[in-house]
């Protein structure tokens, strides 16, 4: 019963539509009517700029982390690492679903990558750090957030299954499912990448301009 209540709370935390509220409160628009139509950090970067995109991204990451940390309210789980990790996965997944289908924003949210990353930080911070390295490297080289997210998600099960060899079958399956989910939710981005029409985020653009001169 307590677990079900925490999962509901985690879903409500994930449902906080950061991008929607920021765009409506500060710009008088609904971010979902512009750019890619997603209520996430990437679209906020494109439409509102790096400052607001960063703010949305940080808050969305914290949503996933906060959901995972709800597990501390059930201290008896701390005695079993595998049970604790499984509970944290359940809470984090609830938050990600809340971000994708937010009850506070007509169930039309973002793709959940930032919130998913917060989940991973809460469960395995070293893996999150490694995935961050992949994400930032690809972002620096390409300025494509979508490509950075896809490659970082593919790296996630590699780190879990091969590099760190995590001894939790549920978490191993979860890592593979995350990679597949991110690829699935980025089908349109992948198509645009192949067509050469995918938008780049407005960071490091001055570096690219200097290179093109």
What's the topology here?
Elements lengths: L1 H13 L3 H10 L13 H8 L1 H20 L11 H20 L12 H11 L1 H18 L2 H19 L5 H17 L1 H9 L9 H8 L1
Keywords:
mainly alpha, 0% strand, 72% helix, 213 residues, single chain
Question: Mind explaining what this structure looks like?
Answer:
The protein is an all-alpha fold. The protein has one domain. Helix 4 crosses helix 5.
> How much of the residues is beta strand, in percent?
under 5%
Poorly predicted ranges (pLDDT <50, ≥5 residues)?
none
**Terminal Cα span:** 63 Å
Tell me the total number of β-strands. 0
Our count of domains comes out at 1
The coarse silhouette is: globular
Subunit structure: Probably interacts with PlsX.
Main location: membrane
Pfam families: G3P_acyltransf
Subcellular location: Cell membrane
Task: Summarize this entry quickly.
The protein is mainly alpha-helical and 213 residues long. It is 72% helix and 0% strand. 45% of the residues are buried.
